[in-house]
Amino acid sequence: MESTAQDISHLSSVQIKTEPDSVETPDRTTLLAVLQVLRKYNLKETEEQLKKEAKVSDVPTTQGSDSEVSSVLSTYKSEGNPDLYEDAYMDLKKFVDSSLDAFKHELGMILYPVFVHMYLELVYNGHEAQAIKLMERFGKDQEHYYKEDLQRLSMVTKRDQMNGNEITDTFRSNEFIIRMSRDTLATLKRHLQEKKQSIILNIIQEHLYFDMYEGVARTKSQIDSVAGAVIGEATRQDNKAKVYYGLPREPDYQYAAAEDDEDTEADGGDKPKKKKQKKESFFNKKLKTDPNAPPMDRIPFPELKDNDKTEKIKALREASKRVNLGVDGLPSICCYTLLNSAQSVICAEISDDSTILAVGFSNSHVRVWSLLTQKLKGMKSADQLQDIDHEAEDVWARIMDERNAESSRLLYGHSGPVYNVSFSPDKTLLLSCSEDSTVRLWSLLTWTCLVAYKGHVFPVWDVKFSPQGYYFVTASHDKTARLWATDHHQPLRIFSGHFADVDKVQFHPNSNYVATGSSDRTIRLWDCITGNHVRVMTGHKAAIQALSFSTEGRFLASAGADNRLLLWDLAHGHLLAELASHSAPTHCLAFSRDGTILASGSLDCTVKLWDFSKLAEDVSIEDVNVTHNPEIRSNTESYLLRTYATKSSPLISLQFSRRNVLLAIAMFDTNQ
Known about the structure:
By secondary structure, the protein is of the alpha+beta class. The chain is about 30% helix and about 25% strand.
């Protein structure tokens, strides 16, 4: 990332950060304060190392008082007369409003963070009355998507209240990121040079970071589309890492599926060649290598058992018979409505083969229903299993006890509301997460809890199995997401970086990445191997409550409490489309199995179908690669195919079956 120091030499006296925090030479007073703290707590080795690196030898033996040390290390230094803050902010606002139209909107992005830090500076230095007056006068002028944060901030009026407060801690310990063109930045520097306003200048130097880019300044709509996150926008550096978004080749058991299908055709008599050719092309298409796919061995998986391979072959055979969807062929929709459940049901999910449904309740129970005529059977007792021939072809049928079959099963174990559930791909296991901060793994053969995973210390909002099974990921109130394996009781990776609750998680189709959506209004993509984030995406104006990857893995759809649906390009981290049609928060998204339709379900009691294939065609990939400000599609009506309304039933889950039937789950609510 380039620095502007050498390019705008005539403004070099005003220093604005255009690179991430670089190594600066600390002043002697700060060094002595730190050394005194180390000496106070008898940290001799650290003290000697710091003295050696900083080349300081003559440290006073008398320790400064705690108040002296804290004043040196405090985040906010007093700027004298507290009454000057209002005038300083008013001057800055007038400068922005009187700027050229080309720069006005980008310059306007500094108003919110400067306002927040002014308020915190006044509170920190004990000027409560001036802080309240500043908030009352200018708080209403800030963008609508910051209103909730400002409301929480206005509750902090004393220094003691700043300690442990989520929003104040976030602003004090992180720089607010603003993307700005070189010309706009030069205009700002020129103004600061002329005014020499120390209050504004100190805040900009200490707490703002400018991600400068070459090119034309952005318009108001371009800025608004990616604004709204707690700490500003993502930097270009955040989205530079290579992402293997493609899908690796499936193993050789695909051939078995194709051969098995052909044998079935031969037994049933002669079939038209055209139909056979279509099925062959389906399997051949699957066997092609994606140049953007990760290596097969990049993330280790246990070797597939025979039963797993059988399930995979069954899934492939069903996929070969699926209906191709499009504008002229919309999907059939099957909606399961849960009655008498408005205050008790929290979550629901259908297994990948669409045969069983799991629902999590506020009373800590999980109930599993069969969606077929066959009832849910349990495994025979240990004594009975000893008499079974384990080499028999129908061993799975023999180990199940017909006598205890039931249409639904109840799972007890959690001590708080169950916030989400997730089936393993082979539907033998079920995960559930709860307010009790645990994740439980249930066997759907014995209908008992196998493991309680205890790693989070706060409520766990979401849990998802990997598309290949074995691994799963959780999201929690503790601001982290965690990657687990079913045979490890501790997490394998802790994804830390969000500034508020992580509300939603989703595995990438190739299982190498995890997407997280947070109440800090950002989406992050994490690499499961390194544990680092490789994409940061901003644009939502409220908490993110739904995530879904496109079938081929390149695109990510997100939705949330701002009633908007956003589409992202993972190759570059760009926002491609912004679709606003729902009138209430959207809690579920699903791509069709052939990747042509995107479905969204909302608390406004509607399911909407979107023409994703048209959207993908309209997006110019070449333009996305070379420009910093790609065009964002927002013409909602041109992509909306159909809206289906339920009868007073908010949607809580959507999923396409293997044959492209859209399965929806809704709760009947008489208050709707």
